[in-house]
Structures are given as structure tokens and as C-alpha cells.
Amino acid sequence: MNLLCSEEFLRFFNTMQVETISLDDALNLMPGALTHIASVLHIGKFEVNISFPPSPQEPNGYNALRILYDDPNGHGYISHSRVIRQAEKGRISFAVFPSTDYEFSDDDKGSLDFLIKCIHLIVVRSELSEQLQKRQFTDYMTQLPNNAYFMKFSNDLSLRGTINKYTVIFSNLRNFNYINQQMGSQVGDIVLREYSHKLKKFYGSDELIARFGGDNFVALLKNENVNRYLDYISVISITVASGNQTKTLTVNARSGIYPIPTNGSNIGEAINRANASLAYSKRVSDNDRVWFRDEILERINKDREVVSSFRTALIHKEFLVYYQPKVSLDSRHISGCEALVRWKHDGNMIPPGMFVPILEEEGFICDLDFYVLERVCEDIRNWIGKGITPARVSVNFSKLHLRNENLINDVMDIISKYRINPGYIEIELTESSSATDFAALTDFVNKLKEHGIRTSIDDFGTGYSSLSLIKDLNVDIIKIDKSFVDHIADTQSKDYIILNSILSMVMGLGMDVIAEGCETVEQAKVLYDMNCRMIQGYLFDKPLSHDEYTQKLSDNHIYEIEL
């Protein structure tokens, strides 16, 4: 046993001390390391048989029979063996054969057992090191490379000077939220894994597709393979279990594409430009494939300017509240209005489509909603002070508010600050995209009702869950989306038939209905005949400034149209 404290064992041990080493590399180093002590321990042959079961990092498991040392002069045939069992049915088996014409003594076997334990520790450490490294560079759920490995792979290509032959494609799944909502997050995870498995089949060793979290995937492909990949991901079919049946889901991807220029490019910048193209496809073009161009950068810079200017604009009250009347077709009087925001910045009036989606995306929209609510409450207080009877005002609230556990108190604090009747306020909400949001939405609606505040659902009929909303949500008013109103003058159209059915169903449930986007007398007549008596649209008025709307309120304005 004292021999293992010798210079020979120290040389063996030092040979194996590599900080980060894979299991295969450790086994490859072992023969050279064992030469330092083989003669001292009379080793003629040393074998190890490693068996690790499949795991997320090693889907096929690991099985290897390796000869770590083989004396060219031969060896005996009676071995000293040991089996060390690992977790999850893994095992490492050792077999040590003596030199020719030598038989191991008990003392030799004690030394060999110590050596086997040392080698076992090296093997286990190497396997653990390899697994940790794989986890560092692998997305756990999908087993695709992650963004850290993507950056490493891309930087290696840059160092080799070949990165300009590649294109970055930033993609996400077009209908993934719907799958999660309708079938549950567990099915959503299965879809991500199966989708990733199909992506793995596409690229070779000199290309890469990585998962960047959620349903975001980034590919680095050779230029000649880009169109083929875009065709490949345009429609991918995935079969999942649903109860006692299986369903085949069609998964579509939307992509932003950035070919890396000849003069090279910072890979981080390339990813950002591909992602910017993807964002552009969602917000502006609604095209599944958007190739980067300079105007996208201009749009992104404008978006950044919106974000950077927002706080200052709030402080300086650059956001103006306009009011679009809601008109009763029976009386032709104003029966309410919707508060709509405009931004007057550097003398220019910025339409909401240029800043609301950006603030929603950046999470600032809640601050703007509360700003509008406060301006509305202030205006109502001023109208009352002048002897003008206000009509109920609806204020839009983003679904992002549902994350606020103190939401109802925040709303009531503003209403109480201006000492107005909560009945003058209506909160206008959009459909929710998840079960968690829907639970929060239900709670919020019920609490608003307890405080005498009415609620409405905006753009009804355009979302996936419209029927569930009117069945399960205790709202007061349903706003019919403009897309249903546009073509109802044709009484044979599908829109006419669908809208007639919706109105009958909603009214049967005891809810009020308002149609938005009414622009012609013909549309108003059809709506009137369908018993929809409250209208909002350009037929009566566009959104009005505070002073214009105040004048119509004070005059008790009547809209002169003949139905």
C-alpha cells in the first residue's frame, strides 16, 4: 500500500488533474497515466466497462468498454474485479489482470482497490463535469442548444472568418399561446419538445438552431439553406395526446431574417436585427417572413424614442384625452363616450397606433391608463362644477393591469380623489389570453361591480374565447368589433347573420350592446332593426377634443339622422 504514496502514483494522479475534462477525454488520458504505476503494481491489463442509463442530457445513455492499459508483453488471465453501482441503474465495472507469470497478493489487491476507487472518482467527476457543461449550453426542456452555446458557436465562426456566409433567423410560433390556452401548459411543453426534435433534424454540424426561451428559436444557417428552412418551419405537424385521443396540431412560425454582411457583424447586433425584423412583422406587416432592411431600424429608433420620452411626456401632460360620443339611436342624444388618448409632442399630434403598442410591449401602458383615468375624473369633476351633467365615460385598461394585486384600490383612490360618483366611470377591457389572467379578470370585474363601476368587453368577437367571456364573465356591456359592422348592409352576408345571432344571444343574457365603427346610415338602420340601439362611430362623431365634447354635452346635442 505504501507504493501508492510513491513518486509513480503522484505522476499518475497529476496526469489526470485536468480542470474541465469530458469523460471520453479522461478515458483517453488514462493509458498514459497508468504507465507510471503499471510496473509497480504488476498490472498487465486494465479494463473498464461503463454503463450509464439514458438521461435528458444523454438521450441514448453512455456505454463503453475501454482498455485503459495493455502491457505489450502480455498478461495473466485471472483478474481482480470490482463493480461500482451508480444512481439510476448505472454501473462501472473494473477488471485488472496481472503481468505475465504474476499472481496478485492480498496486499496487491488492496492497492488495486484503492487505484480503482481513484479511477472511479475521476470517471464520475469527468461525467459530472461533462453534464454540467452540457447543461450550461443546453436548453433543459427541449435539449436544443441555448443562447450561451449559440454565442459561443457564432464567435467561433467569426474567429474562423466564415460568419459572413451565414444568416440569422429569429422565429417564434404563431399560434403557441392558443395551444397553451386551449390545451394546457403541459401539452404546450410537449409541443415545444416535439417541435425542437424536428428542428434538430434540419441542421448539420456546421449550422445551429437554439432555443432562446419561451417559443423563440434562433437559427444560424448557411445562406443557401435559408429559404429551405423557412419553407420547413412554415407548417410543422405535431401529434399530441389529448384525453383518450390524439390530435395533430399545425404549428406555424413567424421569422425575422438577417443575412450577415460580407464585412462581418457583431453577432449580438445580428440577433437584434433579426429580432427587430420579427417584431416588425408582428406590429406592421403581419408577414410570416420579414427580411431586415434599413427602414426597420428607423422604426426601432422611433420606438426607442417613444419609450425614452414617455416619462417626461407624462410629467408635462403631453397626453391629451379625446372623447368619442356613444349615441342612443332612440333619442339621438349622447348616452356615453369613450376616452381616447392622443400625444402632442414637439407640436405634432401622434396617433395612438404609433405609441400605444410600444408602451404595451414595454409594460408602460398601465401608467398611461391611470393617467387617462385621472384626467377623465378631473374633467367629470369640472363638468359637474359647471352644471353640466356628464355622460358615462369608458376608459381602456390593458390586461397587464391584472398583474397588479392592488388594482381595485388604485382605481378607487383616483375616483375618490375627485369626489365623483363611480357610476360615471366604465372600465373597458380586452379579452384575456390565459386561465390565470381570466381568473384575475373575473375578480376585477366583480369588485368593480361592487363599487358601482360598469365594465365592458372591447372588440368582442375577434378573440378565441368570446363565447366563454359572455358565459363566465359578469360584465355589463359588450362592444361589437367594427369588423362585424363593416359589411352588415348586405343582409345576405355572413357578417349580418353572425352579428344578428351575437346580438340576440348577448341581449338574452341581460347585457347591453354597443356597436363601434358605424360609418353609414345604412349600417345604423340595420343595427337598429337588430335592436342594437347604442352606436359609436364616425357617422356621428370622430373623437373630439375636450372643448368640442364639452360643448356638445352642455348643448344637449341631438344628432340629426333619419333611420
What's the CATH H-level superfamily name of the largest domain?
EAL domain
Report the C-alpha radius of gyration, rounded. 35 Å
Beta-strand content estimate:
15-25%
Oligomer: single chain
Number of helices: 18
Q: What's the mean pLDDT score?
A: 87
Q: Walk across the major sheet and give the strand order.
A: 12-13-15-16-17-18-19-20
- Enumerate the spans where pLDDT stays under 50 for 5 or more consecutive residues: none
- CATH class category label of the largest domain: Alpha Beta
CATH architecture level-2 label of the largest domain: Alpha-Beta Barrel
Give the overall shape. elongated
Amino-to-carboxy terminus distance: 108 Å
Which terms summarize this structure?
alpha/beta, Beta-Lactamase, Alpha-Beta Plaits, 3 domains, 8-stranded mixed β-barrel, 5-stranded mixed β-sheet, 18 helices, 20 strands, 23% strand, elongated
Ordered list of secondary-structure elements with their pairings:
Blueprint: H1 7-15, H2 23-38, E1 43-52, E2 62-70, E3 80-85, E4 91-98, H3 106-137, H4 147-160, E5 166-173, H5 176-183, H6 185-200, E6 208-211, E7 216-222, H7 226-234, E8 236-242, E9 245-251, E10 253-259, H8 267-285, E11 289-291, H9 294-315, E12 319-328, E13 334-345, E14 348-350, H10 356-362, H11 365-385, E15 393-397, H12 407-417, E16 425-429, H13 435-450, E17 454-460, H14 466-472, E18 477-480, H15 482-485, H16 494-508, E19 512-516, H17 521-529, E20 534-536, H18 546-554
